Fold:
Amino acid sequence: MQTLVDVKEVYSTEGLSLWYDKKQALKDVNVSIFEKQVTAIIGPSGCGKSTFLKTLNRMVELEPKITIKGRISYRGNNLYDKHYPVEQLRHRVGMVFQKANPFPKSIYNNIAFGPRLRGIKNKQLLNEIVERSLKQAALWDEVRDKLNQDANRLSGGQQQRLCLARCLAVDPDVILMDEPTSALDPIATAKVEELVHQLKQQYSIIIVTHNMEQAKRVSDQTAFFLNGELIEQRKTSELFAKPFHKETADYISGRFG
Amino acid sequence: MTLNKGSLFSMSDEPAVSTQDRLRKRRQNINVLFRRDSELRGKLAIYFGAILIILATVSLTLFLVWQGLRLFLFDGVNPLHFIFSNDWNPGDSAHPTYGAFPMIFGSFAITFLSALIATPISIGTALFMSEISRKWGNKALRPVIEILVGIPSVVYGLIGLTLIIPFIAHHGGGIGYGLLPGMIVVGLMIMPTITSIAADALQSIPQELKSASYALGATRWQTIYKVIIPAALPSLLTAVVLGMARAFGEALAVQMVIGNVTDIPHSMVNPAATLTTIITLHMGNTTSGSAFNHALWSLGLILLIMSYIFILIIRYLSRRSKVL
Structure:
């Protein structure tokens, strides 16, 4: 950790525990997420990695009957403070979901959705935002002539990049990705990974993935979750080269999960 | 399979065949017969039902068209006069006149006015059921709405007659009869129809869309009016049109509160009439084959045409929702 002294923390959690009704999904998780890095979260199904991701923008609160204990700091402020403005948080923390979920609107209106929520009505400014976001998501060249077309007519890979562009349009600080390529073919996956690589120049990215090769390819930091516990979190290269824990070694060598 | 097993069992275990076994065997034979035929019989029953329904619809339409056109074919009434004129007096033996515009106007007025009051309340209730409190909505509100759908229209009419009309009359609304009580009574009647269809439409909006909206920092209200309502709009419109179709066809409850005067009403509390109320009012009193009777059939024909138009609108709307 010595090398990371000059890197800023975006998120840090202290003793984070979470229950769905009576079932505990996260157990005493302590994680640090660093600025302008890609943090991969790996672990077998049901280990709590998606749940953890959803605590970071408080989307987990939409589930019924949850209990949260512990502390999550985002840029120094406790997220689960009662007075923390959750809508503002979600303007700063974008999210890309497992399944591409464009609105049944035109491509243009999908991208402009976030900026409009923040009160941007200027047509010129919206046009600029739409173009910039689509360029950032490497989709501009494919859709520039059909911005008014229904977004659901795009291919699966294009839809996922549209969702990425949609969350870039509000100029976020952090991007959360919940297995963004699990429904995509290898070519579309490669495009998204390439984007992640470029975007980390400007954004802090947290990506949940099933695919360990993907974690190796795209991330700087990797956190390994098992049964709701954080087993270890280190630099990706170190974690995959010589994991501290036996469970990590077993998982990354494919012995379970 | 089980039958075969049974027969094997009885044969191997009991060489002496008892009466009971013989009976059982016979029943198996009958069952086998039944099964071989059941495919064909099922098919016949289904086809018969389907053809019967188509035949009934076609013959009903043809019959009503024929009956409805008699006024124009045999009694020399100009269809344009019938639709656009105000002089409805077919009972006059010397100079009967057949201008049905007041009833057409009344039907449309009741339909749109009742939809106007029912739609916001219904969509609001449906949003409550699907977005605000799904559990409470499905446990408590849905049964209540099903009960409201099941209440006979005459009960709604009675309530209007005994509660709403005296209330309107007491508060300076003339004798109380007219479009206003009609709109309230019919609005109340179509509210559960619109609500239940709209609630189904809203509940079928995928969770992923809502998540996408919340994750972009939208509040619940922003999510409702920027994502959920636009996505469900074709189905919501279908719900409203279905409600309007019901309002257009409603006879009994309207008849009890509207006053049944065949003039264009000057205000919401002047007595008026609709197509259905005039038909139910006079159908029993006219001799079949008379021009008056034919005129009532012509009113029925207008109702039929309108219900066909409502169906066309609904089909158009639901086709559009599939494209989206």
Notes: Chain B has twelve helices and two strands. Residues 1-12 of chain B have pLDDT under 50 and may be disordered. The radius of gyration of chain B is 28 Å.
